[in-house]
Every structure is written in C-alpha cells, then in structure tokens.
C-alpha cells in the first residue's frame, strides 16, 4: 500500500520547499509465481515501470542466463529467452526497453565478447547490441543490489568503454553522442545525477601526460551530450571504485582497502559536499530521497543498515541486525523500490529512511532472500521461492 506524504526540505535540492514523497507502508500479496531452484543461482530483476524482467543463472557451470518478462500488475508471463548474462551486473530499463550486459571481463572462461544487448520488454525481442572492449565493471556485493553498467537519461543509454563514452538511442541503438578521452579511462559509471552524468576515471597508464599524476582518480561530470562540465580530483592514492547517485548528488566510494572513504559530490557545481570514512565492512547502498543507506556487516558478520544524510554525509541512524535463533534467519539484504527502503531475507521489512525504524515486517515465503522492484503499481519481490506481487 503506497502513500503520499510530506518529505523534508531538500528533496529537490538544498533549501527546496517541501514536496510530496511516494513510499510504501505495507504489503498485501496479490499474485505469486512459484520457482524453486535446486542449485545456487544468480538473480536479477529490472522494471520499465509497467513490466518487469526476472533473471537467473546457475552460479556453477557455464549455463546461459534465463530472462523472463512479466506483466507487473497481474504476474502474467509475457516471454522467456536465454542470454549469456554473467549474473554479476544489473540491467537498466525504461520506455519498453531493457539493456543488459553480457560477458564478464573478470572471468576468462566465458568465451563470448563483452556486449550490451537491448530487448523489448513487451516481447523479449532484441532491439540492438553493441560490443565493448573495456567495460567499467563495478563490484557487486552479496547483500546489496548489483550495480548497473550504464545509465538511461532522456531516452539515451550511456556507457563507458575504456577511454570512450557512448550515448545510444535507447530504442534504436543509434550512437547519439560519443567522446574519447586522451588522458583517462573509466573506472565506474556513468550514473545519472539530475540532468548530468558522473563517471569515475583514472589516468591511462599507457598515455604519458605532463602534470598529470597517475595516482589521482577523479569524478568527471558531463552533460547529456558528453561535454565535460566539471572534474573533481580525489585525494592522491585513493582507490575509488564505486559511484552511485541520488538526485543531483553523486556518491563516490572505495570498495576495498584499509582506509576507505566516501565522498558526496554536487553534480551541478562539481564541488565536494562532504567526505566520510567507511568501515572495512561498510558498503554504500542506493540513496532513498535525502538518505544514503550503508550495508554494515561489522557486527559478527551480521547485516545492519546505517543511514547517512545525503546532503551533509552526517550519520543519522543505525538499524541493528535481525534477532533470530537461527543464524540464517538473521540475514538481511537491502533493496530500494518506488521510494521505499526494504530489508529482505527471511522476512520482508519496510524501513523508514528518516529514522531507521522498521514500520512493517512479515514473512511471506519459507526461504526468503531477494531482490525488489516496482512494476504496474505493484511491489515485486524475487526470492528463492519465486516471485510475489504486492499492493
């Protein structure tokens, strides 16, 4: 059951007037699709707003990924096909089109080229595909949504290929924008931040450039035509590998190392808003409104959420691990859909992003786990027992 409620100032920028914020306060089951897998699987889930696509692939073995399209309102299956999805990245979708990354450049056993393939979400038919030589590959985390390897902005799909950035028409695949850097390679992104794009870059080690420090990574801000607008250099030696965004604010973070940090960057000005340390067991999740949730496994390797203010970086709250006798029942994954922060696993929780308090909790299936999205006016959850649609 979704509601509209006043959001605190800042949802549309610092000092903005209060606006209405859409979020869910409870879940009522409407439909189910049973799917019990006998072997461990990678799972993926993406929605274009009306339809959604569920993806799965065996973790062991070279099996191709299975993609199945559904109507979000009814749970009716629309199509099914196989593709060489690696299982380690998330697709993106909009306007009856999804784009999925194929191949895995960190696994030489997959003997297919790295590609992006666009599918019609109503039929599963292929719209276009594009080969990629050096894709920017962000690391996925077991208890967080897998990162996407591109972004959709105003009907254009943007992605990185080494020193090159491309913007292709989402439906036709025609190259609308293109840019090649003479000095840098993409590390992560692009992500859409407001009406701009943010890419994490590093100097190309095979291109010598005077006055360019090879140990300095940067957050590059570009327009929709891929024209450079701002560039913020991170501290020397920083091994930043991740980038996400909420509204106009991009968050760059380090995925590993002993002295990890995260930075908030205003894409409108290119200026750093804040800099906060990250614990070795903390990882940045997808922003929800003005809150940046972190996944924190520092307490006995059990998952707790930590909320930070997206505008200031200040810590707001901490949600302690679940309480249960069985350790597996204490597992909690993070999901964000339709303006709502979810705790997923053996039970589904709705978490108030302003306070970190659980406002709804229920267990709908025996085994739990899961990913979440919204489609056709429903919240859709994909776990080890199949798919469920809620209103």
UniProtKB/TrEMBL annotation:
Tree of life domain: Bacteria
The protein's name: PQQ-binding-like beta-propeller repeat protein
Gene source species: Nonomuraea harbinensis
Record domain Pyrrolo-quinoline quinone repeat: where: 48-182, 240-357
Pfam families tied to this protein: PQQ_2 (PF13360)
């Amino acid at each position: 059951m979704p509601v509209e409620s006043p959001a605190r100032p800042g949802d549309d920028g610092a000092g903005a007037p209060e606006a209405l914020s859409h979020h869910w306060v409870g879940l009522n089951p409407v439909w189910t699709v049973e799917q019990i897998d006998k072997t461990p699987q990678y799972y993926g889930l993406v929605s274009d707003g009306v339809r959604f696509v569920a993806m799965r692939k065996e973790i062991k073995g070279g099996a191709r990924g299975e993609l199945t399209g559904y109507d979000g309102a009814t749970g009716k299956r629309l199509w099914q096909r196989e593709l060489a999805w690696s299982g380690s990245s998330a697709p993106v979708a909009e306007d009856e089109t999804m784009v999925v990354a194929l191949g895995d450049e960190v696994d030489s056993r997959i003997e297919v080229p790295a590609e992006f393939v666009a599918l019609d979400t109503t039929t599963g038919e292929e719209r276009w595909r594009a080969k990629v030589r050096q894709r920017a590959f962000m690391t996925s985390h077991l208890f967080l949504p897998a990162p996407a390897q591109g972004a959709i902005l105003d009907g254009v799909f943007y992605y990185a290929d080494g020193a090159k950035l491309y913007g292709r028409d989402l439906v036709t695949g025609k190259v609308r924008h293109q840019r090649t850097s003479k000095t840098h390679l993409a590390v992560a992104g692009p992500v859409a931040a407001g009406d701009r794009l943010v890419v994490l870059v590093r100097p190309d080690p095979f291109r010598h450039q005077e006055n360019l420090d090879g140990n300095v990574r940067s957050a590059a801000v570009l327009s929709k035509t891929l024209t450079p607008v701002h560039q913020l250099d991170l501290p020397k030696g920083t091994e930043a590998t991740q980038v996400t965004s909420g509204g106009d604010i991009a968050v760059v973070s380090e995925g590993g190392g002993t002295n990890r940090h995260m930075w908030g960057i205003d894409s409108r000005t290119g200026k750093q808003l804040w800099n906060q340390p990250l614990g070795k067991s903390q990882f940045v999740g997808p922003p929800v409104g003005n809150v940046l949730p972190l996944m924190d496994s520092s307490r006995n390797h059990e998952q707790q959420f930590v909320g930070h203010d997206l505008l200031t970086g200040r810590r707001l709250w901490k949600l302690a691990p679940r309480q249960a006798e069985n350790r597996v029942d204490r597992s909690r994954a993070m999901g964000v859909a339709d303006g709502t922060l979810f705790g997923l696993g053996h039970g589904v929780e709705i978490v108030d992003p302003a306070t970190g308090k659980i406002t709804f909790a229920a267990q709908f299936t025996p085994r739990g786990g899961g990913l979440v999205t919204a489609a056709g006016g429903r919240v859709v959850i994909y776990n080890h027992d199949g798919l469920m649609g809620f209103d």
